[in-house]
Amino acid sequence: MEISFYDFQNLHNEEFRKEIKEIIGEIIDNNAFAEGEYNHKFEKDFAKMQGANYCALVGNGTDAIEISLEVLGIGHGDKVGVPGITFYATIEAILNRGATPVYIDINPEDGLICPESTKRMVEAHDLKAIIPVHIYGLPAPIAELEAVCNPKGVKIIEDSAQAQGTFLPSGPVGSTNNMSTFSFYPTKNLAAFGDAGAVLVPSEELYKKIKTIGNHGRGDDAMYGRNSRCDHIQAAVLYKKLEKIEEYNKSRKEVATLYHQNLEGSKVKTLPTKYLQTSSWHLYPVQCESAEVRESLANLLSEKGVSTTPFYAEALSEMTPFKGHEGEDEKAKAFAGRTLCLPISAFTTKEQIEYICNIIKSV
Ligand SMILES: *Cc1c(COP(=O)(O)O)cnc(C)c1O
Predict the structure, then answer these.
(1) Domains and CATH numbers, the chain
(2) DSSP letters along 176-194, please?
(3) Is the Cβ–Cβ distance between 179 and 206 less than 8 Å?
(4) Across-strand partners of 269?
(5) 178-211: per-residue pLDDT in tens?
(6) Measured from the CB, is residue 27 less than 6 Å from ligand 1?
(7) CA-to-CA distance for 362 and 360, rounded, in angstroms?
(8) What distance in angstroms lies between residue 126's CA and the mean position of ligand 1's atoms?
(9) Is the CB–ligand 1 distance for residue 160 below 6 Å?
(10) Which residue's CA is minimally distant from atom 5 of ligand 1?
(11) What is the dihedral of CA 275, 276, 282, 285, to 10 degrees?
């Protein structure tokens, strides 16, 4: 059975294609390319879905983090904490600002940032901000991090690129007082036909500042800016896809639950069941005994037609461009390389899950 890692076929089905082609035709007829009504409609509805006051669309998820650091006044000479298990973009944004990353270790159960390590790094390094990541779609322990950071004035930017539809104990990701950044890269749960990103913010002032920076600093409060706009066509695709995101995220939870059930008694370790209802299940990672076991399992699955990915094969601190920064990374290093992500989408079938889990249980 051939099972691909992403399922664009079902996501972009005939009905969706027909509707989106009509909208794109409208945009071409109106010559409204850079920003238009769909940007505003999406900003309003996405903010509502995530329980945020404002949503500011920008060019991509990396810019969303970079611009968030900028509006907080963080740049050259400032230290920013980053967890060791994340996608390159999180640390790139820090380095692009001229700031210095400090590694914060993770919780070995789930790969999320560890509050105790955060406390040690905040105290040892005079951090100006931390960027917890809702990795795989799991909710990071924001309340625990706030308890560490708020009294010391350390800012929190939540990298929510994988967390459209994720729930914290207090509400959806985006509903806190922190800035939350999103990516709508084509493989994310909610995705454009190319690059797009957003920052969810609690105040109109922050919203306006982000929009001004992303549009070359133009406007009433002219300032030094950059180009980080979201194309009207991408905003229209996102607006159209918003109609189905809750239904699709619900399916992902069902897929994750079935995986959990079918993997019981196997040699791989699944994520804690407490996340079954709160994660967006952007990815479905399992932990293998060792890097060697991971590789042989990935090869076996590949021989049987199943695509997997080793997110993340290395901790950030082990990657050539990001070596040599201070911080804690022991648990992140142990976690990386043992993780194998199995195919998950809103359309993964029971038969596919059983096929994959039987292969895993055969070893
Ligand atoms: C996708 C992603 C980003 C941002 O990606 P862009 O490609 O810039 O849109 C940032 N952080 C994480 C954790 C991601 O998965």
Answers:
(1) 8-240 (3.40.640.10), 245-361 (3.90.1150.10)
(2) SSSEEEEE--TTSSS--SS
(3) yes
(4) 287
(5) 999 999 999 999 999 999 999 999 999 999 999 9
(6) no
(7) 5
(8) 26
(9) no
(10) 61
(11) 80
